[in-house]
């Protein structure tokens, strides 16, 4: 993902999340050198992922597939790509947070080998105030 992709990214981000990231957050991730990937299908942006890698750990910060392309394996593909990149960069463990209110995402992560390792109280904005985050982790070492 590059700065030139951000107009399309923001369309997907705003269409798929009630509390989307801002364009500034994506720009900051690009400037900081995070691992960002845009997934395109015949030139059309269908999803993206953002991951931070450091201290032998990877933290998947955002993984989104646009609704018209959901349930077609693209999220699984993008997650596997990010995990492969993390492992190649020397990360031993991958972490992410998931909303309890999105069981499809939790199921995706569990099928990919992630396990629940903690809870972050009041982590996410929600329409009813705040929502906890389930912290999940996966070992990347053979």
- Percent of residues in helices comes to 25-40%
Helices and strands, in order, run as: HHEEEHEHEE
CATH class: Alpha Beta
What is the H level of CATH, i.e. the homologous superfamily? Gcn5-related N-acetyltransferase (GNAT)
What would you say the CATH architecture is? Answer: 3-Layer(aba) Sandwich
How many beta strands in the DSSP annotation? 6
The CATH topology is what? Aminopeptidase
Fold and architecture overview:
The chain is of the alpha+beta class. The chain has one domain: Aminopeptidase (3-Layer(aba) Sandwich). It is 31% helix and 39% strand. The protein has helices spanning 6-16, 23-31, 74-88, 103-111, and strands at 35-41, 44-54, 57-65, 93-98, 115-126, 129-139. It has a six-stranded mixed β-sheet, sandwiched between helices. 24% of the residues are buried. The mean pLDDT is 97.
Task: Provide a compact summary of the structure.
With 142 residues, the protein is of the alpha+beta class.
Descriptors for this entry?
142 residues; alpha+beta; Aminopeptidase
Secondary structure blueprint with pairings:
Blueprint lengths: L5 H11 L6 H9 L3 E7 L2 E11 L2 E9 L8 H15 L4 E6 L4 H9 L3 E12 L2 E11 L3
Parallel strand pairs: 3-4
Antiparallel strand pairs: 1-2, 2-3, 4-6, 5-6
